[in-house]
Design a protein that fits this description.
The chain is mainly alpha-helical and 164 residues long. Helices cover 41% and strands 4% of the residues. It has one domain (24-142): Cytochrome Bc1 Complex, Chain D, domain 2 (Orthogonal Bundle). The protein has 7 helices and 2 strands. It is globular and about 35 Å long.
């Protein structure tokens, strides 16, 4: 018997993996904490709609941060430290995001192994619960990277979805 999996079935099979990587913070509380971030950052979707923030341009757009390669938001001028981290293939997850917010410069030095690595982000969010909540808020406004990939990929033996 040949088993045919649809995108929906693949998503259900992958659900435990998504759940393990799901943010642990409180998105509602994170929305309030994000007020500290919106001076520099915005969360704007692919259509350019601002979902949170005030169109800050000092920091990169945080839409789709979860699972994104560090230093890879298009047309943003990153510092050398975060670019080196991204060049290593590093992708953002909750634990690393929380550690980065606690001390961006220290985080880059540890992750890159470069004692001279610096971060252009001078703001710190030292309270772990606040950082987790902000991460949950950002994730709540962003697509789940793996879920989007699983839904877009046709199962074996199925036709690819038509382009819009």
């Amino acid at each position: 018997m040949k088993l045919k999996l649809t995108a929906a079935a693949l998503a259900l099979l992958a659900a435990p993996a998504f759940a393990q990587d799901a943010p642990t913070g409180d998105a509602v509380a994170g929305e309030k904490v994000f007020n500290k971030c919106q001076t520099c950052h915005v969360i704007a979707n692919e259509a350019g709609e601002t979902l949170a923030g005030r169109a800050g341009k000092t920091g990169p757009n945080l839409y789709g941060l979860h699972g994104r390669v560090a230093g890879s938001y298009p047309e943003f001028r990153y510092g050398d430290g975060i670019l080196a981290l991204g060049a290593s293939g590093f992708t953002w997850n909750e634990a690393d995001f929380v550690a980065y917010l606690a001390d961006p410069g220290k985080f880059l030095k540890e992750k890159t192994g470069d004692k001279a690595a610096r971060s252009l982000m001078s703001f710190r969010l030292a309270k772990e619960d606040e950082a987790r909540n902000v991460y949950a808020f950002i994730a709540s406004l962003s697509p789940a990277p793996a879920a989007a990939d699983a839904a877009a990929a046709p199962a074996e033996g199925e036709a690819a979805p038509a382009s819009e």
